Amino acid sequence: MSQHRTLTTASVLALILSISPALSDAHTEDGALSAREQQVVALLKSLETVDAAPVAVISPETYIQHNPSVPDGVESFRALQSIVANGLSKVDTVRVFEDGDHVFAHTAYTFDGPMAGFDIFRFEGDQIVEHWDNLQPLADPNPSGYTMVDGATDLAERTSKDANKSLVRSFVEQFLVDQNFDALLGFFDGDTYVQHNPQVTDGLSGVESAFAALPAAGIELSYDTVHYVLGEGNFVLVVSEGSINGQPTAFYDMFRTQNGKIEEHWDTVAPIPPEGDWQNENGKF
User: Fold this and answer.
1) Closest by Cα among 30, 83, 86, 39 to 59
2) Residue ranges of the SnoaL-like domain (predicted)?
3) Structural domain boundaries enclosing 94
4) Which CATH number covers residue 42?
């Protein structure tokens, strides 16, 4: 499939909805953001401020785009800035974390309606060379009163990053991929579990009830492949591929852990468009 280097009206809208919305290697010990995290926050915020300077962090030679509706290259980002330069856009990064050469951000946006989303940027040296994202329209608070973006933000358990990533990967693979309900109990501290999914209530009981209700609602949900597990401290983001009622779907799930248990969860769920509609050849993942 040939690549498209110009932005059509449809791809411009998709690009607007694909870039996230404020906050050397990781958060410093006093909680300040690392240099790369600051660059990502400034880059995203530039969609609101129309500041050209933060775009310098994007490599002019290589910028691989995994949003299927957006062409590769830094010029796509510059084009977006010019389109949203009307003073109406809002970009508010709520959380940002770093894992090796990857920085991932959790953001609230206002472009064509309010959105919640995750963005992942890969660095080579001091420049961004690759981008992934997943966005979902911002819903009303869930039955427990939580929104898709509120909740804890502070890092903890800094020395437990690898253990926390392993814990969360095991949970996703055993429960969401293999659908082993018997495995649930070992991942939670009783019924303590803060839930930010718009349709699910707090607690392990809320998860069990939500999944038990899917067949009656005519919903067939499948997690098939875990592509990435990124984390800093006690925050872990898992990027998975699956389907809902046969529609290819991207799942981004972020978890906060505490004392070896899962304590809090945020997510975005988005359909993957048909390959014939893609504006690049890189795929969603």
Assistant:
1) 39
2) 168-265
3) 9-139
4) 3.10.450.50
